Amino acid sequence: RSREMAKLTQLIDNEVFQAYATYATIVLLKMMLMSLITAYFRMTRKAFANPEDTASFGKGESAKKYLRIDPDVERVRRGHLNDLENVVPFFGIGLLYALSGPDLYTALLHFRIFAGARITHTFAYLIPLPQPSRGLSWAVGYAVTISMAYKVLKTALYL
């Protein structure tokens, strides 16, 4: 049992794992922030998806007008969905990558570029910035995840 604890301690002391934990936390918190931004837009635009969410604005027919689709709410939701589609794979693949023994500099480059790309993507979505800024930021983050996946496959499966 103490041998297992020693391995966990070694992992926590590993600089690449610490870098992964740092940047994974940053992008996960950014993704969680998108939920709050969506809620803010729903409240300020009074645009809700569920009847029970309109209860504080009226009853029956008067509340039905708040069951609607708002373009600003939908834009934030699409940004959040895009985070789910990209941060979740980064979280899993990044962990495997961190455990595959990469060079610290290379790992930091991967993690920082991914985090920067996702933050840029969020600003490009919310402001909105002109294209191709959103598309490029998405592509950069996606390419980083593919690069890490390739390294994991090459290291772990000897491809």
From TrEMBL:
GO MF annotation terms: glutathione transferase activity
Catalyses which reaction(s): RX + glutathione = an S-substituted glutathione + a halide anion + H(+)
Transmembrane region(s): 20-41, 87-115
Keywords: Acetylation, Endoplasmic reticulum, Membrane, Mitochondrion, Mitochondrion outer membrane, Transferase, Transmembrane, Transmembrane helix
Enzyme Commission no: 2.5.1.18
UniProt-listed SUPFAM superfamilies: MAPEG domain-like
Assembly and binders: Homotrimer; The trimer binds only one molecule of glutathione.
UniProt name for this protein: Microsomal glutathione S-transferase 1
Species of the source: Ardeotis kori
Gene this protein is translated from: Mgst1
